[in-house]
């Protein structure tokens, strides 16, 4: 066992990108940040020191944090922020985990620039279940904004509106040659004809699901969210924020330069947005650098079918922990809504639709972050910070019309609150996530902390237990699932990791609007079923 030991300095860095110079928040001055390399079952120790004027935390996205909930990182869920000048040491073991994940800030919108890859190799001597690639490359897809991200989130909240579109997308921090002054800000991979490459693709964007393709090359998916899949060959990917997908690409085309392209998937109709993209190069050795690269085709921004077809082929290689029997059935609606301004939002102005303010909810409850960490409140039995009455089903009965689960008036008055759902240790959970499409139908990338879950079902329209076809043989094991437009996803997991675990839409805008909730998973009886004491340097609020 190795002990990767690292120091992360949260610091601002002046950079010039897409013709503008800005101070952005980074780890160690890098955008994207440093890669954490480890091996399965390694202990990872990262000391984080905050040198910025903003509060910070780091989340290890997709790391299951077995008995180490204190190191999970979402602000006000498992820890108070690391305040300016303070430090906190994250410490966890990558129990039975290998593959590509990523880390990111989990406070305000700092994730936009504070993120980096986690690469976990199999144990020494254990091969990949696919032919060994000639080389491996990380591709982090990002969304770049000129705005100060801390201020931008506050502004969006205060105005009760949406967020402006990004100023550009990036591949490994580079937008590609699409803008004035970015002709040389292009990421490239040099390839040798006949060789096969493993690309570790991460969507670290704040608020946008992305299509990815390489001109003239097919992509063979071999891993999703750090779990091996049955190999499936596709023309392009749709990858949601929070997802990580590994693909094999064979350099089997004529010697030339090919584009790798990233463009938006915006399922919500009627939402104006800028059609932006990012370009990188897949460059064959021997090809001239002065020739134009062949363009990579991307679907149109609202191609829901392309997304559905992509998801249908995803199967896990071994579904070893899949619970076949269920004892806890949950049904959560997820959606964006518009609150009338007289509801519990007195400090917001009302510039959203119908003079209201945008909100989002799960089971009609808009999550309100507490003022101390929920985990601390739970652990120390401090009262008044949350209630344990998050409902197992939606509070209101949906009046489903024509398969569209969209039947709320626009000021749906979701209730505001910090409510949690308590699960007994070892509960065998099936959770249906149903998109309500209250204001617009959206593909919501739902992410659960502390667990991976099997995606046993997936469909459009309303979930119907009689007709829904579930895959109980080889469903993919993910940590983030894009719940389809006006549709549903069924996930299963065994609640065997005690702690407080956040579940939320991985579009930060929607998290800001309250599209989130938290589970409390109780301790079991044994020492390996009990959450340990908090670390001594845990930040205080
Ligand atoms: Cu990737 Cu709660 O986050």
From TrEMBL:
Subcellular localization: Secreted, Extracellular space, Apoplast
EC top class named in words: oxidoreductase
Record GO cellular component, one term: apoplast
UniProt keyword annotation of Electron transport present: no
InterPro entries given in the database record: Cu-oxidase-like_N (IPR011707), Cu-oxidase_2nd (IPR001117), Cu-oxidase_C (IPR011706), Cu-oxidase_fam (IPR045087), Cu_oxidase_CS (IPR033138), Cu_oxidase_Cu_BS (IPR002355), Cupredoxin (IPR008972), CuRO_1_LCC (IPR034288)
Main location: secreted
A GO molecular function held by the record: copper ion binding
Family per record: Belongs to the multicopper oxidase family.
EC id: 1.10.3.2
Coiled-coil stretches: none
Name assigned to this protein: Laccase
GO terms classed as biological process: lignin catabolic process
Domain Plastocyanin-like: 10-123, 137-287, 391-524
Gene3D superfamilies assigned: Cupredoxins - blue copper proteins
PROSITE patterns (UniProt xref): MULTICOPPER_OXIDASE1, MULTICOPPER_OXIDASE2
Protein keywords: Apoplast, Copper, Lignin degradation, Metal-binding, Oxidoreductase, Repeat, Secreted
Catalytic activity: 4 hydroquinone + O2 = 4 benzosemiquinone + 2 H2O
Pfam families (UniProt xref): Cu-oxidase, Cu-oxidase_2, Cu-oxidase_3
Known function: Lignin degradation and detoxification of lignin-derived products.
């Amino acid at each position: 066992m190795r002990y990767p030991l690292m120091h992360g300095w949260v610091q601002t860095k002046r950079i010039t990108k897409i013709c503008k110079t800005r101070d952005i928040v980074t780890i160690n001055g890098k955008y994207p940040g440093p890669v954490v390399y480890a091996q399965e079952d390694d202990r990872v120790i990262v000391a984080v020191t905050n040198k910025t004027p903003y509060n910070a935390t780091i989340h290890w996205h997709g790391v299951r944090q077995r008995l180490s909930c204190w190191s999970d990182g979402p602000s006000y869920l498992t820890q108070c922020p690391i305040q300016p000048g303070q430090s906190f040491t994250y410490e966890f073991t990558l129990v039975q985990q290998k593959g590509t994940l990523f880390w990111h800030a989990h406070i305000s919108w700092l994730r936009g620039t504070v993120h980096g890859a986690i690469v976990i190799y199999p144990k020494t001597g254990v091969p990949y279940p696919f032919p060994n690639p000639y080389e491996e490359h990380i591709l982090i897809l990002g969304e770049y904004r000129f705005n100060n991200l801390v201020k931008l989130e506050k502004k969006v909240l205060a105005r009760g509106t949406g967020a402006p579109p990004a100023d550009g997308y990036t591949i490994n921090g580079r937008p590609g040659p699409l803008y004035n002054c970015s002709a040389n800000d292009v990421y490239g991979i040099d390839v040798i004809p006949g060789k096969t490459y493993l690309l570790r693709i991460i969507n670290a964007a704040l608020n946008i699901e992305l299509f990815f393709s390489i001109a003239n090359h097919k992509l063979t998916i071999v891993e999703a969210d750090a779990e091996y899949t049955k190999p499936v060959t596709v023309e392009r990917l749709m990858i949601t924020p929070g997802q990580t997908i590994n693909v094999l690409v064979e350099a089997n085309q004529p010697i030339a330069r090919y584009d790798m392209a990233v463009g938006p998937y915006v399922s919500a109709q009627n939402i104006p947005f800028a059609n932006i993209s990012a370009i990188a190069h897949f460059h064959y050795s021997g090809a001239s650098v002065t020739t134009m690269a062949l363009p990579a085709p991307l679907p149109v921004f609202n191609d829901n079918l392309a997304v559905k077809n992509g998801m249908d082929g995803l199967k896990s290689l071994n579904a070893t922990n899949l619970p076949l029997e269920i004892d806890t059935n949950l049904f959560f609606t997820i959606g964006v809504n518009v609150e009338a301004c007289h509801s519990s939002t007195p400090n917001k102005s009302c510039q959203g639709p119908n003079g209201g303010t945008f909100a989002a909810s799960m089971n009609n409850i808009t999550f309100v972050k507490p003022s101390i960490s929920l985990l601390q409140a739970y652990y120390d039995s401090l009262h008044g910070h949350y209630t344990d009455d998050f409902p197992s089903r939606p509070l209101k009965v949906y009046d489903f019309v024509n398969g569209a689960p969209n039947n709320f008036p626009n000021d749906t008055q979701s209730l505001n609150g910090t409510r949690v759902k308590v699960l007994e240790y070892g509960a065998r959970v099936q959770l249906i996530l149903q998109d309500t499409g209250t204001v617009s139908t959206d593909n919501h990338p739902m992410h659960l902390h502390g667990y991976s879950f099997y995606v046993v079902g997936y469909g459009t329209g309303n979930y119907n237990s009689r007709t829904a076809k579930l895959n109980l043989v080889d469903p993919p094991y993910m940590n983030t699932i894009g719940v389809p437009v006006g549709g549903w996803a069924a996930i299963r997991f065994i609640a065997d990791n005690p702690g407080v675990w956040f579940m939320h839409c991985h579009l930060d805008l929607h998290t800001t609007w309250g599209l989130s909730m938290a589970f409390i998973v109780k301790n079991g009886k044994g020492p390996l079923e009990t959450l340990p004491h908090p670390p001594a340097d845990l930040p205080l609020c």
